[in-house]
Write a structure and sequence with these properties.
It is a single chain. This protein has helices at 8-31, 38-58, 68-92, 96-122, 132-146, 156-179. With 188 residues, it is mainly α. The chain has one domain.
């Protein structure tokens, strides 16, 4: 298994992959009418890159290419978290109307996040992704986490794990369909 190297060339390849991945998410944000300041996007991108590097190192992953699900999860969750904090600041200043508008934008960011992650698994064989009820449930779980109700929520790693698991199950199912039960092993 070849890994993306940590040298300058490997870093440039990784950064290009991350930029390409985030272009897809930006389009999804634009479709739901979310416009964010470039400085906020840049901050979230930097945080996402750092988290990605720490995750790869922590779990000793030999990365062949950047996993879009990780990037979407970490970047999107950070954007939503910023809006949660901004909403709370507005509430602290007795501006509930503006706070509600910020929370509506956060909801749109989370919907775009879940839709973008779902689009990643939609294209794999067999075609299809998670159903609308499950996608809406995942958005609610993310909102609960951001609202500091972690007993009933999931965070950035949880949303990544949910979609990673769904994609892994699709791949295993497809192998079984193609090869029978012997195909359920990942080593094909």
């Amino acid at each position: 298994m070849s890994s993306v190297s940590s040298d300058s060339e490997g870093d440039n390849v990784r950064l290009k992959q991350i930029a390409d991945i985030l272009d897809v998410y930006r389009v999804a944000l634009e479709k739901v009418g979310v416009r964010l300041e470039e400085s906020s996007i840049d901050e979230s991108l930097d945080k996402c890159r750092r988290h990605h590097d720490e995750h790869i190192r922590c779990h000793q992953i030999e990365e062949r290419s950047v996993d879009p699900l990780k990037i979407y999860a970490w970047f999107g969750f950070d954007l939503a978290d910023k809006l949660t904090r901004k909403s709370q600041e507005l509430l602290d200043g007795d501006d509930s109307c503006s706070s509600n508008a910020i929370l509506a934008q956060r909801h749109d960011i989370l919907k775009a996040l879940v839709a973008t992650m779902n689009s990643t698994i939609l294209v794999e064989r067999p075609r299809g992704g998670l159903d609308r009820v499950t996608l809406n449930y995942l958005v609610r779980l993310l909102e609960r986490e951001l609202d500091e109700d972690s007993d009933h929520g999931i965070g950035q790693n949880g949303i990544f794990a949910a979609f990673h698991s769904a994609l892994s199950m699709k791949r295993a199912f497809y192998r079984i369909v193609r090869k029978g039960w012997e195909g359920s092993k990942e080593s094909d």
